[in-house]
Amino acid sequence: MNLILFGPPGAGKGTQAKRLVENRGMVQLSTGDMLRASIASRSDLGLRVEGIMKRGELVPDDVVVGLIKDRLADLDGTGGAIFDGFPRTLAQAEALDHMLKAAGRRIDSVIRLKVDDAALLTRIEGRFKEFNRPDDNPKSFKTRLMAYNRDTAPLVAYYEAQGKLCEVDGMAEIAAVAADIDAALLAAA
Ligand code: AMP
């Protein structure tokens, strides 16, 4: 099974992805984590994207599509992929569909974590204090939320049209969100 965890920054995608990795032997493909790793290693890519990410803007589609493409072969013999923070634009969603098709795979389910903006802000403020992630500062977070609403939210209609969208209340406790995701995956299986 291959699924997309979909939702704004701070919705809990990473937390839920990690649980699915542990319980189902799935592979988390987080473009944000891959980009942060390239910044940490001071690679050319890292140097190219560092400022963009710090400001909370989206990195170019070809960069993230390339990162995902390089990782698809890792899925062989696993429980499938959890796409976390990817796709974020329509061009990325279309590229993902093409890449998966070429690899004989498909997206089975898109889990949308719904959380209201005020709750997101509170969560991100807490995360900024705890982990000091540069793009969790209030100004960059506002830019990230705007990018989500402008470029990413329209993907809801894209996946709804494919009949793959499942909505989950991301405001609930972590365990309750996890249970709702499990139920949605059972229904999609
Ligand atoms: P995340 O960890 O998913 O919140 O991503 C952190 C930052 O990495 C985002 O604010 C973007 O700057 C960049 N990023 C991660 N994934 C993507 C993507 N699929 N498309 C464009 N930019 C991305």
Structural descriptors:
single chain, 189 residues, alpha/beta, Rossmann fold, five-stranded parallel β-sheet, 5 strands, globular, binds adenosine monophosphate
What would a concise description of this structure say?
58% of the residues lie in helices and 12% in strands.
Explained architecture:
With 189 residues, the chain is α/β, with parallel strands linked by helices. The mean pLDDT is 94. Strands 2-3-1-4-5 form a five-stranded parallel sheet. 58% of the residues lie in helices and 12% in strands. It starts with a strand and ends with a helix. α4 runs parallel beside α5. The structure holds adenosine monophosphate. The site of adenosine monophosphate (AMP) has 18 residues, from α2 and α3.
What is the tally of helical segments? 9
Bound molecules: adenosine monophosphate
By CATH, the superfamily comes out as: P-loop containing nucleotide triphosphate hydrolases
Sheet-strand content, in percent, reads 5-15%
- Judged by helices, strands and strand pairing, the structural class is alpha/beta
Question: What is the CATH class?
Answer: Alpha Beta
The helix/strand order is EHEHHHEHEHHHEH
CATH topology: Rossmann fold
Choose one word for the global shape: globular
